[in-house]
Amino acid sequence: MTDAVCGLAVTSVLAYFLRHQEEIGAYLAQREQKANEVRRRIESAQPDLTELRKRLGWGDG
Questions:
Q1: What are the C-alpha distances in Å from 25 to residues 33, 35, 38?
Q2: Does some domain include residue 56?
Q3: Which residues are CB-contacts of 49 (< 8 A; sequence separation ≥ 6)?
Q4: What domain count does the chain have?
Q5: Most exposed residue of 17, 28, 35, 45, measured as fewest CB within 10 angstroms of its CB?
Q6: Alpha-carbon span 54 to 60, nearest angstrom
Q7: Residues with Cβ < 8 Å from 51, sequence gap 6 or more?
Q8: Considering the domain boundaries, does residue 41 fall inside one?
Q9: Which pTM does this prediction carry?
Q10: Residue numbers of the domain that contains 30
């Protein structure tokens, strides 16, 4: 990719972002919410590792 094409691509991406900030913000918030749900689901399925962390010296648990 030449410098001119790369510069044009960057300009296009920035222009898209500036025209669609609300939609992009909503999309990112939705993805963050989904990631938090997945994280909670995974953490709830894991055993309590507090004692193991203490024995390994990885903090207070």
A1: 12, 15, 20
A2: no
A3: 61
A4: 1
A5: 45
A6: 6
A7: 61
A8: yes
A9: 0.63
A10: 20-45
